[in-house]
Design a protein that fits this description.
Shape: globular
Helix content: 25-40%
Number of helices: 6
Number of domains: 1
Number of strands: 5
Structural class: alpha+beta
CATH architecture: 2-Layer Sandwich
CATH class: Alpha Beta
Strand order of the largest sheet: 1-2-3-5-4
């Protein structure tokens, strides 16, 4: 086996079956496999087994709920694209945006605005991606229960890690992010 080039980093030790060691560091994110495999993803369209329906019975801390309203709530995404990625979700199990009541639509909009204000206060993002995927074909991970995403964005947040390494580096644990957002959310 050829000797790898010298480096200032840790000594490179061959691992059986992996070929020639290189100078790349590995960031292991095994928790992402649950998402990739679709574990705990609800089947069908019924509220039974729907994670968005079951979250509301948990404590805010356990469910990562940031704020609760009369007809919607804000919750952190378990598989965030960026720190502070949250979703505004109606309590009612409804799949299509056109099926929301006027009160649900209004509160969903108000919660989205409030989420932007809170994120700006605690994390100073440069912008946001806001939207919802309607239907599996449109990319909805849980198509049976409507939810709107709010993803804070910063200049340069799409660096080489997700582009080349297909890995997202998140500098904060979800529980810490939830506490920051929840504490800044007006009552």
């Amino acid at each position: 086996m050829p000797t790898p080039p010298p480096s200032d980093g840790p000594e490179l030790v061959p691992q059986d079956g992996t070929g020639i060691p290189d100078t790349l560091q590995r960031l292991w994110t095994p928790h992402r496999m649950a998402y990739i495999r679709g574990e705990n993803k609800p089947e069908g369209t019924e509220p039974e087994g729907c994670p968005f329906c079951s979250l509301t019975a948990l404590t805010d801390e356990d469910a990562l709920i940031v704020a609760r309203g009369d007809s919607v709530y804000a919750v952190l995404n378990l598989y965030p694209y960026n720190p502070g990625h949250l979703m505004v979700v109606p309590y009612r199990h409804v799949a299509d945006y056109t099926d929301l009541t006027q009160a649900e639509t209004d509160e969903l909009a108000r919660f989205t605005q409030q989420a932007m204000r809170v994120a700006r206060k605690v994390a100073a993002p440069h912008g946001f991606n806001i939207g919802m995927n309607q239907g599996v074909v449109a990319g909805a991970g849980i198509a049976a229960h409507l939810h709107q995403h709010l993803v804070p964005r910063w200049g340069g947040d799409a660096n080489f890690m997700p582009v080349i390494g297909h890995t997202k580096v998140l500098p904060q644990l979800l529980g810490e992010t939830r506490t920051l957002l929840a504490d800044a959310w007006p009552v």
